[in-house]
Amino acid sequence: MLISGLSEKRFMEPRVRVFCWRSIRNVLIFICVAVFLATCFSVVRIDISKLVTGLPKIANWFVQMFPPDLRDINRVLRDAFQTLAMATVGTIFALVICLPLVPFAARNTTPNMLIYRLVRGLFSVLRGTEILVFALIFVAAVGFGPFTGVLAITFNMVGALGKLLTEVIEPADPGPVEAVQLTGAGPVKTFRYALLPDIWPNIIATTLYIWEFNVRASTVLGIVGAGGIGQTLKDSIDLLDFPKMLTVLSVILIMVVAIDSLSSWVRNKILNPDAASSAGHGVPIRLS
Q1: Domains identified in the chain, total number
Q2: CA–CA gap between residue 155 and residue 52 (Å, rounded)
Q3: CA neighbor of 230 nearest in space, from 126, 121, 140, 152
């Protein structure tokens, strides 16, 4: 089809190719995604009637939760602090293990690509193994208790924290590193005096984020015998002690919200120190 304008120039409309490789590829991708989604919905066996039948039971349990049972509040608070301690110690252990390994897993600091792939693979294996799986392994290996929870958190978080810290190192400004290298400094001194001061605030912020996540994850480790408040929660559910379950859930919720708020505030102070300091001085007032 020809189109002519006022300037008498003629243009040809592009021909639409229906059976080109790109169109066939897009159709095949759409079919594969549709089949995958249909298979997922089929495998999970969604049954709305079971949900409708179970909702009255949940409502009845909710009514039975009140008033909460505070007779054993001291033990609940002790278990909550044990959960917080497990998350804190596990995060510290993971950070101590990660810091020497992370430079080998970042492209701009690794001395060898083989070492890079090996350390990256280690991080992927540890990160891909769920924390509850580590908890079950260490419960069988070292027994019940909070130390098992610390080990589970440490091994899983070495992978997660290692990946996040490599993403902090790789986009770092290469200018200071190149300047220090020109002085003849070796890799260790270059990392210590050029790269580490630049990325240290991000390392602290990332570690705080992982700590915040570990506090939430640690609340369920007790279900498999890895210590903390999860065991108390499991006992109250098994005994259908709903008033005590409400007390435990309330303590978990208050602890998690407080830790999240504290971690977010500290991370904001670390990553945006100028904004925080300028906000404290108030808004300038014009004097006439």
Answers
A1: 1
A2: 41
A3: 152
Task: Give a yes or no: residue 131 inside a domain.
Answer: yes
CATH number of 102's domain: 1.10.3720.10
Alpha helices in 107-241 (DSSP H): 113-128, 131-142, 146-169, 174-182, 187-190, 196-218, 229-238
Residue 275 belongs to a domain: no
Task: State residue 286's pLDDT score.
Answer: 47
Span 10-30, pLDDT tens digits: 656 666 666 677 788 888 999
- Which tokens is 2 given? 């020809």
Per-residue pLDDT at 202 exceeds 90 = no
User: 194 is in which domain, residue-wise?
Assistant: 69-269
Structure tokens at 263: 């971690």
pTM summary value: 0.78
Report the alpha-carbon angle 71-73-75, nearest 5.
110
User: What is the tens place of the pLDDT at every residue in 239-284?
Assistant: 889 999 999 999 999 998 998 888 888 888 887 776 545 555 554 4
Residues with Cβ within 8 Å of 21's Cβ and at least 6 positions away in sequence, in order, are none
Residue 31 in any domain: the answer is no
Euclidean distance between CA atoms 280 and 273, whole angstroms: 11
